[in-house]
Amino acid sequence: MSSILRVDEIQKTNGTSFSMGKIGQVLQTTKTDTTSISSSTFAQISGFSVSITPSATTSKILCMIQLNLGNNSTNLYTRLMRDSTSIFQSDSASNRPQATYGYTSSGQYAMNPSPIIYMDSPSSTSALAYSVHWRSDGSATGYMNRTFGDRDNANYDPRGTSSIVVMEVLA
């Protein structure tokens, strides 16, 4: 039988010192309605942003995002943003899109969850807005919180929800 030893129990047993981050504040926004995009230019998802004011410049912000995206024949790309800065995206590589997440589907009756988890170090005590920007490849429309087919049938094409949770992790 294995046992799990908590950090505070290790400190008591062998005197090892650990620095344990504490959560200062937790904020969330949810989006339950649907929206769509057919542009190949990144744009903020309307009504999908949360602001947090860190209590110290040494605080980190843990961002946890759950998106439900649907499409039929287009590529969707997302970027995690702090204010107007993309903070978690790929390196530049020729003509490939720089994104936090890229999503491709060939099924018009499905939504895929697109989780994003990132620990940001903003070094700020000003209010910070975290949001998601997205774009399609411009050839078709992508959807949030709904499928492409979106049939009005109790057995098909569910609607989804998306959320952003931010947590201040104190140093």
Helix content: under 10%
The rounded Rg comes to 19 Å
What structural class do you assign from the helix and strand content?
mainly beta
Report mean pLDDT, rounded to a whole number. 86
What is the percentage of strand-forming residues?
over 45%
| Poorly predicted parts | 1-10
- What sort of overall outline do the alpha carbons produce when their principal axes are compared? globular
Q: How many H/I helical runs?
A: 1
Largest sheet, in brief, is:
6 strands, antiparallel
Written description of the protein model:
It is a single chain. By secondary structure, the protein is mainly beta. Helix content is 5%, strand content 47%. The protein is built from one helix and eleven strands. Mean pLDDT is 86; it is low at 1-10.
Properties at a glance:
single chain, 171 residues, mainly beta, six-stranded antiparallel beta sheet, five-stranded antiparallel beta sheet, 11 strands, 47% strand, globular
What is the topology?
Elements: H1 7-14, E1 22-31, E2 35-37, E3 43-52, E4 60-70, E5 75-82, E6 85-88, E7 101-104, E8 112-120, E9 128-136, E10 142-144, E11 162-170
Antiparallel strand pairs: 1-11, 2-10, 3-9, 4-8, 4-10, 4-11, 5-6, 5-7, 5-9
Concise synopsis of the structure shown:
It contains one helix and eleven strands, in the order αβββββββββββ.
